[in-house]
Amino acid sequence: MTVFTGVGVALVTLFDDDGEVDVDATAGLAGDLAAAGMRSIVIAGSTGEAAALDGAERVALVKVVREAIPGDVPIIIGTGAPSARQAARLTAEVVAAGADAVLVLSPAGNPDPTSYYAEVVRAADRAAPVLGYHFPTMSVPGIAVELLPRLAEVGVVGLKDSSGDPARLVRTLETFAGDLYVGSPWLLSAAGPLGATGAILAVANVEPALSIAAFGGDVAAQRALASVATRASGPAGVKAVLAERSDRSTRTRV
After folding, report:
1. Active-site residue flag, 239
2. Which three-class secondary structure state does DSSP give residue 157?
3. The domain 6-246 belongs to what CATH superfamily?
4. What is the pTM of this model?
């Protein structure tokens, strides 16, 4: 089950002056980005400061964002957690709230997270597809390419890979039958033509059009996007650039 094709945005979570989630402002941004061509909205990923959001906040975001974007643009919610039990509980909560799919960061310190993902898939209960998330910079060691077929066997339908490793990109495309979404803005002009299903990008919060063009193989767009991505990196960096262009909040929790 392919969740989406093309470019999706790893949405920032906007906070008010008191540090509370501003669901309306976040949903407004999601609506603007969907109108700009984003093919999915990813809430509570690493760019969305997932580690600082509780389950109730994720549920609230699902409900309000769903009203702000077209029905054919899927909402994907980050539900990765240190333990399978926590990740499964978050997954069940957001799926019940209307999430179309979940994106699950691999747990730190676990070289073989197959059983972790199997429990999350059971919690999703076939109501929403489960995507794995390889981001070793944030959660070591990530997911070895050799393990991806095993994850597919337990029901993981795709993978977001934010490693930025071009050799791994090719190996994954050769090894993994599921869908592959790149998370690095540096590989887009190669990833699309090579056959990646799509991309999930932080920089798309501020440059949706360039992100789409680069994934389509436009090398000039890739160069232009790279210059923005050096600044729009991490939640604070993305919000700083976004605020310059749209006067949105720069408040972060992480």
Report:
1. no
2. strand
3. Aldolase class I (3.20.20.70)
4. 0.97
